[in-house]
Specification:
The protein has 559 residues and is α/β, with parallel strands linked by helices. The protein folds into 3 domains: 204 residues, Alpha-D-Glucose-1,6-Bisphosphate, Chain A, domain 3; 223 residues, 3-Layer(aba) Sandwich (Alpha-D-Glucose-1,6-Bisphosphate, Chain A, domain 3), CATH 3.40.120; 111 residues, TATA-Binding Protein. It has 20 helices and 21 strands. A 6-stranded mixed sheet has the order 1-5-4-2-3-6, sandwiched between helices. The protein has a 6-stranded antiparallel sheet with strand order 16-21-20-19-18-17. Strands 8-7-9-10-11 form a 5-stranded mixed sheet. 53% of the residues are buried.
Length: 559
């Protein structure tokens, strides 16, 4: 504890933020055991950047961590041959985001780089788009996406518009650690850059201009002229409203009915316990507005607008329900495939997302790429598949990439394509459920579920995965396990986790979360439709899925 107290005192001397500096010293004075959590580890920098609660110490998001991270990034860019790197810096509406963005700018300038700091909040896909469009060497977005209100984060794009992958994250992390260990050498220079407000102000870039450029590209990605749809929309207290409403209007749609309680940025997220559209209850306000105004569809972005959720009237028409990420991915992919052509088309999905896309791609003679989890992989075929025409990529966690103008998930463009999809179905006097049934008739019912186990320590996840790898279960429910092994069956780069396959083609993938202390399991059953009503096969699939999901929960000791 004595060493931690000394580390905390040194940290407080270096911390440029008086609030976290005072908090650190208060903890030291109280001999608070919280110091163990805050100062015994450093927040790990990975391919997803940084994401954690805001607070003092190296294991939290704060001004000093942001500065040290940026110095490490700039040194890595210089070692990679990028001298005087141009770095775009955007931020969302969370507490501290604007301040952290200015700390990034100061660190960039201190290392001889050129910082372009947006003059207002921006959706993450707009920053990703501008990275390529303006030829930046890198871009940083200060956002915690859909994490709780207490969190913030640091997301990185490289000059190709993609998130980084290994081993670059390890290389940058090493340089961050070295910068932190010798921070006394860097601090004066960074502090000088921070004090030079004129330098940072002169490097501002217009958020409205970047939004307009992304809007033009998103509208150009539309595939049909169908526009007769009544929409409801929520930004989940985030930054998506202006971008989505502007894009819908420019594309020719009527302006959506807004969930007024959620469409103004608010870092406290007052109407939702957890600002993630996938969480139970998060879409309740959207469902109320959708029903009240008798719209055709409700659309929701997460707070940084890179993901999209959809609510529609249920099959009985008596209430509103959310599509799963796999269901929405299937109908969006179907829409894109029906309205594009060419033998060079490519679609992509993460390995934990529904295999229905595989069958759809085969039926259209389109190349499918299955990737590791995360859009750093799902969007990578845009640059890795030479001569290919990348038209669609998705992951089950409501992330969708349509076209190539953003090399990441883009909830704004996805909202436009979802709106025209519903418009087309409406013009044909059909529903999204009818279209899902048509896909089931052609390719079988694909039913999916997910199990999540929150952990106190990520090491526990590794131990569980190791045990399942060495001693896989003989069966899941009544289905014998016929194969077990690495995720992707050895066809993908090695990644933590295990993949199980039963004799009835049920797939179970168990892996640690990349951004949270969780162990996740993904279950998919496939039930053929054989000269019978689709609802019969759907019922069989649901029953099997319930049984297998229960077996997985038992396997993981999830109550």
């Amino acid at each position: 504890m004595r060493q931690l107290v000394e580390a905390a005192r040194r940290w407080a001397k270096q911390d440029p933020d008086p609030l976290t500096r005072r908090r650190t010293l208060d903890l030291v004075d109280a001999d608070d055991p919280t110091l163990i959590e805050l100062f015994s580890h450093r927040l790990a920098f990975g391919t997803a950047g940084l994401r954690a609660p805001v607070g003092p110490g190296p294991n939290r998001m704060n001004a000093l961590v942001v500065r040290q991270t940026t110095v490490g990034l700039m040194q890595w860019l210089a070692r990679s041959g990028v001298i005087a790197a141009r770095v775009l810096i955007g931020f969302d509406a969370r507490h501290d985001s604007a301040s952290f963005a200015r700390h990034v700018a100061a660190a960039v300038i201190s290392q001889g780089g050129r910082a372009a700091l947006t003059d207002d909040v921006l959706a993450t896909p707009i920053v990703a788009h501008a990275t390529i469009g303006h030829g930046f060497d890198a871009a940083v977005v200060i956002t915690a996406s859909h994490n709780p209100a207490a969190d913030n984060g640091y997301k990185l794009y490289l000059g190709d518009g993609l998130q980084l992958v290994a081993p670059h994250d390890i290389e940058i992390a090493d340089l961050i650690d070295r910068a932190a260990a010798t921070w006394e050498e860097h601090a004066p220079v960074v502090n000088d850059a921070w004090a030079d407000g004129a330098t940072i102000a002169a490097s501002e870039i217009s958020a409205s201009e970047l939004t307009a450029a992304h809007r033009d590209a998103a509208v150009a990605a539309c595939l049909t002229s169908h526009r007769s749809v009544r929409l409801a929309y929520t930004a989940m207290h985030g930054v998506g409203t202006n971008a989505v409403v502007g894009a819908l209007t420019q594309a020719g749609f009527n302006a959506p009915m807004l969930v007024e309680s959620q469409c103004t940025p608010d870092p406290t997220f007052p109407t939702v316990a957890f600002p993630n559209p996938e969480e139970a209850g998060a879409l309740d306000e959207l469902k109320i507005v959708a029903e009240r105004h008798n719209v055709d569809v409700g659309l929701a972005n997460d707070p940084d607008a890179d993901r999209l959720a959809m609510v529609v009237a249920n099959r009985a028409g008596d209430s509103w329900t959310a599509l799963s990420g796999n269901q929405l991915g299937a109908v969006l992919a179907d829409h894109v495939l029906r309205h594009t052509e060419g033998a060079q088309r490519v679609v992509a999905r993460s390995v934990v997302s529904s295999r229905l896309l595989d069958k759809m791609a085969a039926a259209c003679a389109v190349r499918l790429v299955v990737t590791l989890t995360g859009f750093k992989w799902v969007a990578r075929p845009i640059v890795s598949e030479i001569g290919a025409d990348y038209v669609f990529g998705f992951e089950e966690a409501i992330g969708y990439c349509i076209g190539t103008h953003v090399r990441d998930k883009d909830g704004i463009t996805a909202a436009l394509i979802a709106a025209e999809l519903i418009s087309e179905l409406k013009a044909c006097n059909t529903t999204i459920w009818d279209r899902l049934d048509q896909l089931a008739l052609a390719h079988g019912v694909h039913a999916t579920s997910a199990v999540s186990l929150r952990l106190d320590d990520l090491a526990i996840a590794g131990a569980v995965v190791a045990q399942l790898t060495s001693e896989p279960p003989a069966s899941l429910g009544s289905e014998p396990v016929v194969s077990s092994g690495p995720i992707g069956g050895g066809r993908l780069p090695a990644t933590p986790g295990v993949q199980l396959l039963t004799d009835r083609d049920t797939q179970v993938i168990i892996r640690p979360s990349g951004t949270e202390p969780k162990l996740k399991a993904y279950v998919e059953v496939i039930e053929p439709v054989d000269h019978e009503p689709v609802d019969h096969a759907r019922k069989r699939a649901a029953d099997r899925l319930d049984t297998l999901t229960s077996a997985v929960r038992e396997l993981l000791n999830v109550g």
